[in-house]
């Protein structure tokens, strides 16, 4: 439930060195159909791809299906794995609740929970999360929740790709399990970077992310 404003702070930190082009998640009913829609809209030539959260998972699936179209891939706040049981249950509860009661926007408590300890009182970030959610609204929320319930693990497939691959994760991201991080760091193929923040890494650590992006996409 984020739009182009997710990248504003990071783009500001990048300056003119690299330009980020926001791609909205296509309004399709399944992850496979979303990837197919992206295949039609993204360039055929190899591209530098960057994905956050659900977008990070979609970028991973796109990359394993079309590896010839990827130059480099960076995934933020996602591990290209199946949903945790707890997260799937939360999404099912949310779907049932919205279907019965309608959607009035992300509560402040939920927005705060997405942030790391140092930002839980940051009203600018909290308001931005709520404003992006409000802009996208109930239809997009329902589509994103429904389409991502069945999310196959593609992390093992990423071990076999030949393009450079980097994962950037928040140390205090409650949506990522320690077991998965341990699994990833045990694979030499994966470049895993950790930073002090919650789930909303581009909002919480834009300068750190800009530095990582510059080094990674310029091939350093």
**Integer tally of domains:** 1
| Global geometry | globular
Radius of gyration: 17 Å
CATH topology: Rossmann fold
Descriptive notes:
The protein has 10 helices and 4 strands; from the N terminus they run ααβαβααααβαβαα. With 220 residues, the chain is an alpha/beta fold. It has one domain (4-217): Rossmann fold (3-Layer(aba) Sandwich). A 4-stranded parallel beta sheet has the order 1-2-3-4, with helices on both faces. α1 crosses α10, α2 (31-41) packs across α3 (54-65) and α4 (85-101) packs across α6 (123-147). It is globular and about 45 Å long. It holds the Pfam family Abhydrolase_1. This is Alpha/beta hydrolase.
Topology:
Layout: H1 8-14, H2 31-41, E1 47-52, H3 54-65, E2 70-76, H4 85-101, H5 108-113, H6 123-147, H7 155-158, E3 165-170, H8 178-185, E4 191-195, H9 201-204, H10 206-217
Parallel strand pairs: 1-2, 2-3, 3-4
Helix pairs in contact: 1-10, 2-3, 4-6
Keywords: Hydrolase
Protein name: Alpha/beta hydrolase
InterPro entries: AB_hydrolase_1, AB_hydrolase_fold, AB_hydrolase_sf
């Amino acid at each position: 439930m984020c739009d182009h404003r997710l990248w504003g702070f990071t783009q500001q930190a990048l300056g003119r060195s690299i330009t980020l082009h926001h791609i909205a998640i296509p309004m399709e009913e399944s992850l496979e159909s979303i990837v197919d829609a992206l295949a039609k809209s993204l360039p055929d030539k190899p591209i530098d791809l960057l994905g956050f959260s659900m977008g990070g998972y979609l970028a991973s699936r796109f990359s394993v299906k079309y590896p010839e179209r990827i130059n480099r891939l960076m995934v933020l706040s996602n591990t290209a794995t199946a949903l945790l049981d707890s997260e799937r249950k939360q999404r099912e509860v949310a779907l049932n609740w919205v279907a019965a009661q309608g959607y009035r926007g992300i509560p402040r408590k939920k927005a705060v929970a997405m942030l790391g300890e140092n930002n839980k009182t940051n009203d600018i970030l909290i308001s931005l999360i709520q404003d992006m959610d409000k802009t996208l609204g109930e239809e997009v929320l329902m589509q994103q929740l429904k389409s991502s319930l069945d999310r196959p693990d593609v992390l093992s497939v990423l071990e076999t790709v030949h393009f450079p691959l980097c994962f950037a994760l928040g140390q205090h991201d409650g949506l990522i399990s320690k077991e998965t991080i341990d699994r990833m760091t045990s694979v030499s193929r994966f470049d895993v970077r950790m930073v002090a923040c919650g789930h909303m890494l581009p909002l919480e650590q834009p300068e750190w992310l800009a530095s990582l992006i510059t080094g990674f996409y310029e091939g350093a």
